[in-house]
Specification:
Oligomer: heterodimer
Largest sheet of chain B: 6 strands, antiparallel
Largest sheet of chain A: 8 strands, mixed
Number of helices of chain A: 10
Distance between the termini of chain B: 63 Å
Helix content of chain B: 10-25%
Number of helices of chain B: 9
Structural class of chain A: alpha+beta
Number of strands of chain B: 21
Structural class of chain B: alpha+beta
Order of helices and strands of chain B: HEEEHHEEEHEEHHEEEHEHEEEEEHEEEE
Strand content of chain B: 35-45%
Distance between the termini of chain A: 47 Å
Shape of chain B: globular
Shape of chain A: globular
Strand order of the largest sheet of chain B: 3-2-1-4-5-6
Radius of gyration of chain B: 25 Å
Largest interface: A-B, 81 and 82 residues
Number of strands of chain A: 25
Helix content of chain A: 10-25%
Chain lengths: ~475, ~425
Amino acid sequence: MKVSMSSFLITQKPVLKKIVNILSENYKYVSILGTDTKGKMYNVQRTGIDLSDSFWSERGFVIRVHNGVNYSEFSFNEISEESLNSIVDEIHLKMATTLESLKSASITVNPYDLIEETLIKEQFLGEVIALPSTLTSKEKIEKMCFIKDTALSLSELIVDFRVAYHEVHVSKIFISNKKELEQSYIWSEGYLVSIVRRDGNTKYAHSSFSGLKAVELLDEMTSNIEKAVDTSIKLLDAKSITPGEYEVICSPEISGLIAHEAFGHGVEMDMFVKKRAKALEYLGKSVASELVTMHDGATSANNMSSYLFDDEGVLGTDTIVIEKGILKTGISDILSALKLGTKPTGNGKRQSFERKAYARMTNTFFTAGKDTLEDMIASIKFGYLLDGTMSGMEDPKNWGIQCMILKGMEIKDGKLTGEIVSPVIMTGYVPDVLESISMLSQTVELSGSGACGKGYKEFVKVSDGGPYIKAKVRLG
Amino acid sequence: MIERIKNLISGSSKMDGYKIIENKITASELFFVKKGLDMYRAKDVHNFNITIYKNFEEENVEYTGSSSAVIHPTMSDEEVLSVIEEAAFAASFIKNKYYPLVGPSDIVQPEIISKFSSKPLNEWLPTLTDALYNSDICDNGRINSSEIFLNKVYTRIVNSKGIDVSFTTYKGEIEFITNWKEDAEEIELYKNINFSDMDYDLIDEKVKEMLIISKEKAVASPTPALGKYTVLLNGAPVIELLNYYLAQASAKNVYNGMSTAKLGENIQGNDVCGDLITLTLDPFMRNSTKSSPYDTDGFPVSSAKIYEKGVLNMYHGDSRHCHYLNIEPTGNISNSIIEGGTYGVADFKNDPYLEIIAFSDFQMDPLTGDFAGEIRLGWYFDGISTIPVTGGSVSGNIKKLQKSMYLSKELQKDNSFVGPKIIKLLNVSVAGIQ
């Protein structure tokens, strides 16, 4: 079913065009991004139910102008024909005064060229199998309560079983002197979290679900109840890992975590401008095993971060970041591309209209190989099959990697033994990890639950993934 | 706008109560690359969040259903009404155990004091910039890039029981990256400072400190594989680690079965040979972005002692979850003060240790007690000499280590936390790289 564009944004279009026209009398570049994102978060657990608007819900605007030296922005969410003058005054008077006061305080201003635009007018409307309105909130909660109650009946060790479902309808409009872009799409994500306790030892396991989908996600979740419960119960017997270097097989989820943390953040090209990325020195050089090819882009896959245009009005692309082990290029927002003299890749993303745009990942993944998972497991003398993303942290300057992983399933003499270690922290030097990749399975899986931050803030939706990969890593 | 929402709510008979939270945020933001201003941003946004409550009974059980939604100032009356009705519909089948809404109080709460209130936000930007770059004068190291955010947040909370309170807070944030280069490759470290008051020296000191430790990281050796070792956590990881105790005492976690902490019992168990936790919540901590005279229900908050020498004195939480546990509510308070221990930092350093001052991302799981992090900078003392080290990781479980946990006498203040500067833990697993 086709997703519909926000009628609010459509009705505001003449006002937005008027603002662009007025400001263009004084500024050589003017653009406005308008957003109207609606979403609901449903949470069901043993002790209660919670229903609220999604934290991604927003409705507002951000104006960007070239102030004669570089770019300034103003974010606001009250707009009408009558308030046009006060919005224009905010740019003309207050922003100009502030910039002058900063210059008077001997603060230098980094110059940026003008953004060159070509004439473009496009619209994208996403599709889902079943729109959020197909089910009422009551029906969604009933389905979620069924999942919870089914899980709770499976074991007395379960302290709680949490079911989360999150649906978000994104609408955006971008207006400048040469661009008129509109897009609307729906994504959803869900979690099953099984929390178990035995003799004071508490463990939990989660399964996540996501995609450019809506209520159909609830059916996917229903078919994974037992798996989430089983995993959590097995974790009660998990041991701590003996720190050391191991041969491992990473599940597609962990492959994605590595792609994301190891190279995704490291090739965000605002980091090139700041000289914070070691990758800048390695363009055209080998950074990974020749088995490794990695993509990022709004059009590289049909997943959580697939869109027509980014938050700076640049059309999404498919970037080959690593090709057969060679680092080819980075991913870029429009201002970094201006600074570096490169072409923007449609990766300028904002947490919301209230925040700045940065170079951010979209759908990031390793491509498939030719091996089977069975052969990969059989090739390991002693190691682990790693699964379950907990968190990760990038280090683009020095190429460190930290991945917090839920569990490692022991492999001995080419077979899974049933023993589990948990939790596991994977660390290492990125090229060492990527150079060590020696086998890749034949199917790529992407997932996009949660959010990606830049440092500890600026959260955006992304997806990442890959096939199963075999590598050598340090675990603790 | 609040009156408009109230009028529209009053036209609906499908509810038993409501709450409206209004937030008006103005902000000025600067983004620097080296010392050059890369972008100036300003913000002026106005938002409303409504919660609709509905009491009902099923099979002799009383419930208070609720549902929350955002109302944008650009919404038409029809849109607002639709949001209200949708929330009221949802509240009518959400089966949460009954609880009463917070009512008005005669308590007069003090204001949150900040120098930022004395002039417009944008006029503070040159001072903040000067404080940030004052000590950026080294030859081999510098601030690579930075971001300065200054927010003024007006909050008004209104509910159907007659609560109508309002207050203004300030939220400042500076994020900066430092570089240093000696003979090996250039390194970087990340720092984030949160504040609600203008304190030039605090910002300047943080920059000096980061430049010093960046220099150390530039000459750091790989962390040795130490196996089980004495670990000293320094600075921010201490706050993350001790957050475990706050989570264990949360009324919500206790009600949900996530915490088994019992009033009157020692959270650290019996036969503790290290230091015991004494923890107080202080809603009016100076220069904290989390200070607030009221919680999000409009409940007037005041100081509360949660642990006394390890013994759980009271749970903390909002009115709803405290009602479920049949205890007096503290309201949600996010500032904590933890008393220092018996020994000083110098005492901790008499025996071999690995002191970690910067992690990639130190993580503590408050449910399981598991913690871990990759080491970005530490100091390794083998009993003879001390060297800076980097790489590898530490991991452990607080429940297994808390009996021999030592809190330094020396304290640190970091936004919403006052407490030990360093924590000493024995037998922590260290995965080195050498």
